[in-house]
């Protein structure tokens, strides 16, 4: 992958800059004609909460003493110890900020953990695990002296089914993705490290995401309603958790590059969403290792009046405020980042995170087929294991000749090359070790004096386990959701073994219709991208120590064509390629519902080793809930948007009973039917609540879902506000987006 170097470089630069309004005034025809100009850029005021207030007071006081050169210095990148290093201001004791990839573990370093990827964390549907994930990640960054962690990801959201980076993010459902963005951001920052919400916004495909010899990058053209209800939605949760940094994206939006798109950065992010932190510019044609386009040029531009001094002061103040907000002015460790070629004292930041990684890996494993209770395995003594994905290849991540020494740059193995624990590119992590499925299975067998012969006559086996995967990486999109070799492998095993269990490690949707109905295939598991404890997590589920409770964070179709136009990235050789998001809100399950397409496995689906019963739905308006159609315009916006959007309007509860024989967690899900009209065409049902609850056999627990104003609202493009309509809202609660067990209504009348 030649692009590796540029990927690494791309992480080098930071900017408090955004939408400088520099040089582009709308007359540049095709480039910059369509995204509305929104100027000036909102000044960060630090009014969201007491902590920001005090951070801004200190930041403003310090910035006031600085020269333009010093302010600009903080907004630019330097080559240094870390993947990215900002300029320092030694005169005032401001050190360079150290930035590093990746969202699922520190990239390219030693004695760090390889966590599950975002899409796998989403499959837990467990807010507590999401938070703990963020906290553990954050503590590793802090331990290494890294100020800014470059994650979590909600862009791409996952609109394009074959998108190359979907796995770095959480789910193509904005509510589930938002829950993850909020919890992970909170976790990272509670550990004392700045979280970066990325990529803002609409980087939904890898193909032509950047300018090239063919022409400009793709332009994502999306109307304001889908922009808010799908793509901005999860970023709101991250900002609500006070995200200190946001990274803009490579491609264009309405023909204007995202990193200079004033509508996105000034209008949406800094004004509507009240963002207090700083925007990091990623576009590597604009910013270079030493200096960057905006280094000296920015100073010159202020001096000649092209850019206002206030804009640069705001850039510097936002960076300083984030620094104070996180307490990085006080006792933050110096970076311990070493080139692999230098002898040094190792700094081990792994703590006991392996246990959490193992727990998340098991909690997010999704069981989709389990005929005649094949799983859990009943103390098996004879298992056959097949497939390239069962084992770990020999250390490809330490290929020093390729990466100039040092540790993992990449750990996404291509399909066929070994077990997949994360994807490829800058979102990849650096595992200290990998417990392969083969290793963990052998260990279990050894304990029970079982056998796993290398030459396998299938006939006497308790079960045959076959491992396949589906790889994806930054820089390119997937070409298919299946591959023939893997399907043939599964078919061959199943043709000879009447109890075949298929395990899929995948970067996203992997279709299975080539073999799913084969009666010899008795169990199928989507095991995601589980990180370093892969085999242990899986064995915990196979042997029944953990009853599966993971649910699909996407829809698996019967045929690829069922996804319609959003199956593949848009292909174009035009100089100004355009991608119109004409499907609007209707991606994934929203589209399947509307078009009455039966999925193979629906969004939110996943089996367990027990049975659950749902009862006693109760829908209750909250006392004194404000149901005005629009949030009070007199109330100031805080980080995340208008504060009223987060107020609970109604609460839904139900009873959840475990009617089977083993303890298990169930993810109860709430789907909401927002009133549809000619003005607001709404999807039949949208996820607006979930709660993962552990329940013992015979036990009944109450599950509760709080519905906020945002959950119930639609984006009204005319008034540019979230509108709470009066009317009847359908409430469905169940075990998946199709397995809806309870139904009720919520009546909203205008107050
Ligand atoms: C925009 O910039 C061009 C030069 O790039 C200039 O000719 C034109 O007058 C400017 N238009 C406005 C409205 O400032
Ligand atoms: C793109 O254009 C559409 C249609 O005019 C508009 O609704 C949307 O807000 C625009 N988005 C951006 C980022 O300019
Ligand atoms: C800018 O940052 C560099 C790198 O940290 C530092 O060496 C230099 O002194 C800084 N310049 C100013 C004007 O503070
Ligand atoms: C400044 O801008 C010029 C073009 O105006 C560009 O060639 C140069 O690379 C930029 N960066 C620096 C550090 O001068
Ligand atoms: C101001 O300085 C910038 C950066 O050097 C340059 O690109 C721009 O053309 C200058 N503008 C004027 C009006 O001189
Ligand atoms: C499942 O169990 C039933 C009843 O024992 C049996 O008829 C059927 O063949 C079994 N199916 C498989 C795939 O083993
Ligand atoms: C299993 O079945 C397939 C298809 O019938 C056959 O080609 C293959 O050789 C058999 N044996 C093994 C070990 O895969
Ligand atoms: C199932 O496996 C048995 C061997 O155990 C084989 O004889 C049979 O043909 C297989 N069935 C299918 C549909 O592959």
Automatic annotation (TrEMBL):
Transmembrane region(s): none
Annotated pathway: Glycan metabolism; cellulose degradation
Leader peptide range in chain numbering: 1-19
Compartment(s) where it occurs, according to its Swiss-Prot or TrEMBL record: Secreted
Catalytic activity as recorded in UniProt: Hydrolysis of terminal, non-reducing beta-D-glucosyl residues with release of beta-D-glucose
Keyword annotations from UniProtKB, A to Z: Carbohydrate metabolism, Cellulose degradation, Glycoprotein, Glycosidase, Hydrolase, Polysaccharide degradation, Secreted, Signal
Main localization, broad class: secreted
Record's GO cellular component terms: extracellular region
EC number: 3.2.1.21
Entries under Pfam families matching the protein: Fn3-like, Glyco_hydro_3, Glyco_hydro_3_C
Sections of the chain in a coiled coil: none
GO molecular function, one term: beta-glucosidase activity
Domain Fibronectin type III-like stretches: 666-737
GO biological process: cellulose catabolic process
PANTHER family xref list: BETA-GLUCOSIDASE, BETA-GLUCOSIDASE M-RELATED
Family label: Belongs to the glycosyl hydrolase 3 family.
Name listed for the protein in its UniProt record: Beta-glucosidase cel3A
Organism: Anthostomella pinea
């Amino acid at each position: 992958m030649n692009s590796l170097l540029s990927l690494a470089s791309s992480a080098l630069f930071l900017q408090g800059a955004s939408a400088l309004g520099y040089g582009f005034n709308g007359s540049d025809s095709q480039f910059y004609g369509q995204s509305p100009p929104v100027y000036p850029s909102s000044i960060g005021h630090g009014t969201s909460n007491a902590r920001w207030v005090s951070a801004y007071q200190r930041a403003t006081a310090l910035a006031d003493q600085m020269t333009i050169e010093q302010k600009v210095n903080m907004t630019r990148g330097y080559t240094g110890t870390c993947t990215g290093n900002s300029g320092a201001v030694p005169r005032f004791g401001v050190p360079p900020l150290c930035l590093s990839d990746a969202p699922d573990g520190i990239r390219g370093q030693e004695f760090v953990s390889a966590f599950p990827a975002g899409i796998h964390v989403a499959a837990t549907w467990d807010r507590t695990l999401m938070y703990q994930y963020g906290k553990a990640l954050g503590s590793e960054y802090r331990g290494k002296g890294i100020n800014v962690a470059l994650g979590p990801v909600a862009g791409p959201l996952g609109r394009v089914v074959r998108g190359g980076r979907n796995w770095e993010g959480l789910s193509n459902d904005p509510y589930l993705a938002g829950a993850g963005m909020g919890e992970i951001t909170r976790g990272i920052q509670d550990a004392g490290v700045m979280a970066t919400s990325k990529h803002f916004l609409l980087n939904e495909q890898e193909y032509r995401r950047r300018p090239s010899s063919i022409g400009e990058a793709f332009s994502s053209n999306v109307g304001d309603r889908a922009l808010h209800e799908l793509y901005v939605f999860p970023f709101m949760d991250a900002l609500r958790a006070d995200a200190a940094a946001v990274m803009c994206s490579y491609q264009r939006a309405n023909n204007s590059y995202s990193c200079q798109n004033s509508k996105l950065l000034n209008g949406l992010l800094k004004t509507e969403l009240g963002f207090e932190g700083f925007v990091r510019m990623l576009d590597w044609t604009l910013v270079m290792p030493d200096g960057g386009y905006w280094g000296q040029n920015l100073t010159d531009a202020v001096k000649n009046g092209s850019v206002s001094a206030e804009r640069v002061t705001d850039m510097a103040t936002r960076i300083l405020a984030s620094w104070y907000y996180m307490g990085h002015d006080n006792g933050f460790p110096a970076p311990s980042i070493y080139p692999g070629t230098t002898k040094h004292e190792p700094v081990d930041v792994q703590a006991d995170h392996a246990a959490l990684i193992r727990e998340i890996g098991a909690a997010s494993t999704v069981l989709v087929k389990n005929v005649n209770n094949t799983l859990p395995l009943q103390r098996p003594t004879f298992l056959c294991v097949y497939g390239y994905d069962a084992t770990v290849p020999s250390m490809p991540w330490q290929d020093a000749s390729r990466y100039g020494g040092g540790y993992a740059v990449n750990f996404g193995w291509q399909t066929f090359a070994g077990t997949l624990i994360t994807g490829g590119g800058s979102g990849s992590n650096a595992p200290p070790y990998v417990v392969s499925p083969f290793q963990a299975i052998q260990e279990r067998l050894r304990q029970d004096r079982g056998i796993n012969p290398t030459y396998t006559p299938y006939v006497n086996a308790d079960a045959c386990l076959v491992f396949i995967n589906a790889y994806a990486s930054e820089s390119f999109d997937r070409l298919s959701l299946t591959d023939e070799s893997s399907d043939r492998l599964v078919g061959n095993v199943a043709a000879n073994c009447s109890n075949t269990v298929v395990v899929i490690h995948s970067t996203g949707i992997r279709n299975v219709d080539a073999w799913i109905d084969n009666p010899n295939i008795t169990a199928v598991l989507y095991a995601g991208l589980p990180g370093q404890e892969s085999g242990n997590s899986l064995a915990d589920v196979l042997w029944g120590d953990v009853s599966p409770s993971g649910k699909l964070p996407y829809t698996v179709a019967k045929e690829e064509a069922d996804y319609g136009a959003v199956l593949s990235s848009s292909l174009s050789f035009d100089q100004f390629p355009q991608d119109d998001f004409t499907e609007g809100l209707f991606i994934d399950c929203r589209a399947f519902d509307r078009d009455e397409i039966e999925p193979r496995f629906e969004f939110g689906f996943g089996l367990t080793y027990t049975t659950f019963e749902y009862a006693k739905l109760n829908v209750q308006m909250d006392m004194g809930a404000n149901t005005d159609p629009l949030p009070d315009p007199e109330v100031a916006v805080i980080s995340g948007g208008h504060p009223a959007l987060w107020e609970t309007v109604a609460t839904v509860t139900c009873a959840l009973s475990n009617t089977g024989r083993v303890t298990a967690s169930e993810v109860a899900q709430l789907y909401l039917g927002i009133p549809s009209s000619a003005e607001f065409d709404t999807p039949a049902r949208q996820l607006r609540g979930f709660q993962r609850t552990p329940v013992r056999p015979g036990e009944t627990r109450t599950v509760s879902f709080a519905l906020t104003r945002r959950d119930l609202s639609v984006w009204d493009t005319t008034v540019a506000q979230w509108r709470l309509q009066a009317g009847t809202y359908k409430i469905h609660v169940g075990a998946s987006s199709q397995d809806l067990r309870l139904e009720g209504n919520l009546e909203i009348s205008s107050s």
